[in-house]
Amino acid sequence: MTRQKNMIVNCPACLEDGSFKIYSSINTTETPEIKESIFNREIFKFSCPNCGEEILVAYNCTYTDPQNRYIVALLSDDEESDESIVKVEGYTLRIVRTINEFVEKIALIEDKIDDKVIELYKIMLEDQFEDERPGAKILGIYYGGRNFEDNSLLFFIITENAENCRAMLSMQTYNAIESQFAASAQKYADISEVNRLWAIGALQTDFGGGTEE
Q1: Are 56 and 46 in contact, with CB atoms under 8 Å apart?
Q2: 122 and 107: one domain?
Q3: If DSSP codes are grouped into helix, strand and coil, which group holds residue 103?
């Protein structure tokens, strides 16, 4: 069920409190139109009623997609336990900690792309990028969508010096990574947090890589 409630947000600009309507849970069968507001991050955008300042506010939100049998739970507090998230039989659960990860997971679900393969590729891309640009510090790599014209996947590389770049992954390479990982995939079937740390461990364990953080 899609549920909304109000929370109080303290504006960082004028320091006044304002009421912010948030979604504690989203069901795409009931409110399919909300997907666009997720992708453009409108559901996380707080506009201060006092000074007009706009900021993104991360809050706990559970996204349920009955059609694709997925649940994505955003836990905005890193210290928060995932024990509060109820696993539903027949659904794949993903737990994320940031707005960007939340949006990315949902985009991958929509495009029917395996997030495990994507996280593995991100580590490979990170190593390649740092080899080509010594000293460059990557803040994050995010999935940017599928290009059906050239059958590829787009990624945005966010760097510390604001030299933001793009990378493309061909579906041929995607399928090769998926095939290589297939033998180990089953042991990760119940993993809820599929992220950079998971990918580093999987590469070291299953591919014998020497990737470091």
Answers
A1: yes
A2: no
A3: helix
Q: Give the SS3 label for residue 157.
A: strand
* DSSP code, position 97: S
Task: Clarify whether residues 8 and 96 are in a common domain.
Answer: yes
Tally the domains of the chain.
2
Q: Do both 101 and 18 map to the same domain?
A: yes
**pLDDT digit string (tens) for 163-196?**
779 999 999 999 999 999 998 888 998 899 999 9
Q: Model pTM?
A: 0.90
Number of helical (H) and strand (E) elements in the chain, helices listed first: 5, 10
Bridge-based pairing state of the strands 17-27 and 138-147: unpaired
State which residues form the domain around 91. Answer: 3-111
**Lookup result for tokens 């809050």:** 59
Distance CA 74, CA 24 (A): 10
pLDDT (0 to 100) of residue 87:
84
Answer yes or no: is 160 within a domain.
yes
Residue 211 counted as domain residue: no
Tell me the angle at which helices 115-132 and 99-111 cross, rounded to the nearest 10 degrees. 120
